[in-house]
Structures are given as C-alpha cells and as structure tokens.
Amino acid sequence: MAGRYVVFNNGVSCPIIGFGTWMKTSVAESVKIAIDVGYRMFDCACNYGNEKEVGEALREKIREGVVKREDLFITTKVGLAFNRPDLIEVSIRNSLKNLGLEYLDLYLIHWPQTYKEGHDPDTLGDPSASIPGTVDYVDNWKAIETLVDKGLTRSIGVSNFNKRQLTRVLEAARIKPAALQIEVHPYLNQVKLIDFCQSQDIRVIAFSPLGSPDRPWAKPSDPVLFQDKRLQPIADKHQKSLVQVLLRYAIDRGLVVIPKSSIREQIEENYNVFDFQLTAEDLTYIRSLECNFRFCTIGE
User: Fold this and answer.
1) What is the DSSP string of 233-255?
2) Of 46, 100, 172, 187, whose CB neighbour count within 10 A is largest?
3) What are the tens digits of pLDDT across the range 171-218?
4) 3-state class of 31 per DSSP?
5) Strand stretches in 57-164, DSSP E
6) From CA 178, how far away is CA 185, in angstroms rounded?
7) 247 CB contacts (<8 Å, ≥6 apart)?
8) Phi, psi (deg, nearest 5) at residue 86
9) Secondary-structure percent of the chain, ordered helix, strand, coil, rounded to 5
10) Residue 223 to residues 113, 187, 226, 245: CA-CA distances in angstroms?
C-alpha cells in the first residue's frame, strides 16, 4: 500500500484518494460500490444532508465483513447553522449519530463564514436571503480543539480558508490544523496557498478535482475541465483517461484528492490511478492551464 497514504502532522494516516459524497443521487449505493472498489476515505458534510445514507452504507459493509471501522477514514464538517463555539459539539454529535460512528478521523470547519441562527443559506435554499453572523472563526477553532480532547475526532482542520484566515488560526491554535480542504485543479492551481500549507506541515485535500461537472449552478459558458483536449496528449502517453490524468495531477503534487461519482464504471476509473505517475514536464504543462477559475463558491 506504499504511496497510497499520507501522514498528518499528528501521525494519523489518511488515504491519498477519497470518495466525495456531495451528490444529488442516492449516495448509499455509491458509497457501497466505492468500498468494494477499494476506497477507504469518505468525505462528508452536515450540509450535504445525506450523512444518514452514508452511515447506512458504512454499517452494511462493516456487517458484511468487507471493512472494519479502523480501515476507514471518515471526514465530515461543521454545519453552517452550527458554526459558533457553543454549537460545534452539538454539530459533531449529530453527525456521529447520523453516521453511526463513535469518532471521526477528521472534522473540518466547513467555511470561515458564519450565519445568524436560522439563516443558514443551505437551509434556506437562497444564499441571498442569508444573514451574516458575527462569530470569529478563531473562536470556532478553539471550540473544535476540545473535540479532540474528548475523543470525538482524531484530527481537525479547516475548509475553504485562505492564507490570511489560516494564519490567524495557526497563531491562536493549541492543536495545529492537520488539513486544509480547498478547490484545486489545473484551472485553479492554488500554488501559493499549497506551498504555505506544506511549509506548515498541513495537508491539502483537493475537492472538485474534475471540475464538479454536476454542480447545479453551472453556466453553459463555463469551461468543462474533464473534457479539456489539451490534456489528451498526456493521457495518450500514459494510456489513461483525461479524468485519471487530472486525479494523478493532484496526487503527484502531494495532495489528497476526493473525486465523486454515482456511476460504477466512473468510480472504478477514478480509483485506478496507482499504476502510473506524471513526469515533471507533465506537471508543468498541466499547471499552465491556470485561468483562476472556480467551479465552487459558498453554494457548494
């Protein structure tokens, strides 16, 4: 299994490729397929609204003897409606109940933004109707640290934070963030932020590595990353698909990557990336596709 895991700054091992669970279709069957294929890291969130389905799939595969709990690496995130110090433990306990777990492997502050109670944009379904809160995310970090002390999660981190925000957390942290989850792909390479994280021994987890093609807010004029023919020569050279090249691009940069799909063939294809490696020239070329384009915003 060499090369299939990274080690966090607290000594916890994390699979280098995980399975994203933000999807419109039934997630339970997709998670079961992913476990059968070989995925052991599953990325969840309170605001995805499907933790119970994920938990059912995990428990079924554990009952079948396909995996043990200790084989799995489960991540989830603080709900936006719980993004304040006095509610963060409520949020993780709700997630643990939904997932049917006693502990998490990684718990993330989903967004630095906070919202007044009852004005969670995901709950309202209309981001324009949300009302910003006044909670400082540094106070939320101090609250999330206590969850490690209580054994509710092995590791903690943040998601969608920029360098300035992450620096403020680091300056106040008693427990250093183990990971930062951000959007990363050839159109948004995030070089400076990734370099900063690596200098601080913080692992970067890349979401939307394929350009989040099923995002509901996509516009007809948006670029389609996983169909970018400029990648075809590299795919042909390695006898791999464009999708596999994109995933390997993240892995060869030292990132954890979390693709998602509800189609068995695609789930298998996404995982079949351990029998090749991109060259330095490949990496430089792919990086040149940078156009500072984000597929996901607060509506993720």
Assistant:
1) HHHHHHT--HHHHHHHHHHTTT-
2) 46
3) 999 999 999 999 999 999 999 999 999 999 999 999 999 988 778 788
4) helix
5) 73-77, 106-109, 156-159
6) 21
7) 17, 209, 210, 257, 259, 270, 273
8) -80, -5
9) 40, 15, 45
10) 27, 9, 9, 17
Cα–Cα dist 170/178, whole Å: 11
Query: Can you read off the two tokens belonging to residue 76?
Result: 């989830």
Instruction: Mark whether 115 is an active-site residue.
Output: no
Reported as a pLDDT band with limits 50, 70 and 90, residue 114 is confident
Number of continuous H segments (helices) and E segments (strands) in the chain: 11, 10
153 alpha carbon, distance to own chain's centre:
16
Query: Is 110 annotated in some ligand binding site?
Result: yes
Q: What is the DSSP string of 52-85?
A: HHHHHHHHHHHHTTS--GGG-EEEEE--GGG-ST
Token pair of 294 as six digits: 């984000």
Q: Per the confidence metrics, is the pTM higher than 0.90?
A: yes
| Phi/psi of residue 50, nearest 5 degrees | -135, 25
Q: pLDDT digits over 13-67, tens only?
A: 999 999 999 976 789 999 999 999 999 999 999 989 999 999 999 999 999 999 9
Q: Which helix (H) or strand (E) holds 19?
A: strand 19-20
For residues 179 and 156, give the distance between their C-alpha atoms in angstroms, rounded to a whole number: 7
Q: What residue type is 44 in one-letter code?
A: C
Structure tokens at 246: 């994109």
User: For the chain, how many residues are written?
Assistant: 300
Torsion from C-alpha of 33, 36, 41, 46, nearest 10 degrees:
30
Token couple for 74: 């489960």
Please, is 154 exposed, middle or buried when counting C-beta atoms within 10 Å of its C-beta (0-12, 13-18, 19+)?
Answer: buried
CB 93 within 8 A of CB 110: no
